[in-house]
Amino acid sequence: MLSTLTDMPEDVIRVILRDSDFRSVHSLRKVCYYLRNCIDDIIPEANLNSLEIYGQPEKVYIFYEFGKENETIEYRKHEKGCWVIQDDKEKFLDKNRFIDVFLNDLTLILKFQSIKLKKFRLRLDDIGEEVKCVVVNSLSEMLKSRKNQLKVQELNFDSVDQSDLLKVLLVSDCESLKTIEICTTDPFSEPPEILKIDKLETLEHWKNLKNIIIGKYVIERTIQEFSGYSRVFVKVQLITFVDLMNVKKAILTSPNFEILNFHYCQFNEQRQFSIEFGPPWIGDQDQYVNCLKWFIRIPNASDVLEISHFSRKKIFRFKKIRAERVWWEATVQD
């Protein structure tokens, strides 16, 4: 019989860690120095599906999902230290800055995660610029120190500064990333903020993307530059008739195309567009939506290209739909 925990063979500890979820491993690590050192040496797999970080003034949250379970940890600033709240349990850490405690735990999570994360979300705009810089720079250093680059399928960010996103992307795996979503915490700002993507576009990460979603920021690009992606939701300054024709031509032969949604600030060529595409299908018109639709048969496929213009919302949408979903009284163009 083992007399103490430290007499337990490492192979036994490995089996225990293998059959434990990350929440249990995280708790075991706090039991004693021996277990902490063993776990740090063994580096068990975290097996997380998603990791989300939300910052608020003087507090930050970590949400992570493993299997069908999820966990929330809150780190709250106190004048004498930090409150850590997990599983409805509160723990006060005297003389510890909340951001340092949070970063220490985040380091462990990233250290134990080797498989691909389906989603990695960073929402830090509300935490304050100074603390945000600390988190982004620290995250970049954590990812840089890994033996293997972190694999992420979907990255969700809320920064208007592409330099923050670059710090994360440059030290992450470029083959795994398929979706980038960039949002804004103030979608009603006037005039809308401009998001520069010139440096992002040079990365292999960007070139390998299938889906691009960019909140209310305005992208200084033509819509035809996004015609090679599967799913796009962006806002541009100007859409021209030539842009629309080029997008239509490109996606009719694109095997990856699903839906392109373009919000615009200016479009002054409605008459030329209507002449080229003919009378639209109106259907049951909603006065608040005011949507016109055109249907075009996709060559060598059973699908149809649906082009919608929501004039009140200033949106052009190109969507691939099944032929049977076309309204029976609508005309499908060849």
Automatic annotation (TrEMBL):
Transmembrane segments: none annotated. Residues 2-51 form the F-box domain. It comes from the Eukaryota. It holds the Pfam family FTH. This is F-box domain-containing protein.
